[in-house]
Input
Amino acid sequence: MAPVFVSAPEMPERKVRTLDVRITAAGRTLVVDRLRIRDGQGASLSTNRTEASRLACKTPWQSGDATGINISIYAQNGGDDPTYRFSFNWSRPGPETDGCSSMGTQRVGIDQTVSFAKNPHVVLRGDAETVVDLRLVDGAP
Output
């Protein structure tokens, strides 16, 4: 008996979208970048920096300063009007203290669902004067 070949149904094309991301907070520009996203494939960006403390102490051991930025965006559903889950987290040293004690860490975060169906430009706002500017450059619905 000869084998029977069955073709798989044709899958719809997944639109690749280019997204400009600009994030400012606490009077500083934190991110200016471009990410590619599409149904089933999100994008992420991470940066971490650790360095010696800004404080000049005479103690033999002192904690350092750490700063980190994490961004992710991925489709929550597909189709002609996809929604995306956007996540942003920024951690940084806390304000300077008297003496050489630890300054602690401050964090800002935004987790929100966004849609570009009605407008290819979305602005999110959060604590520490955080402004997330997301703009579809091409592949807009």
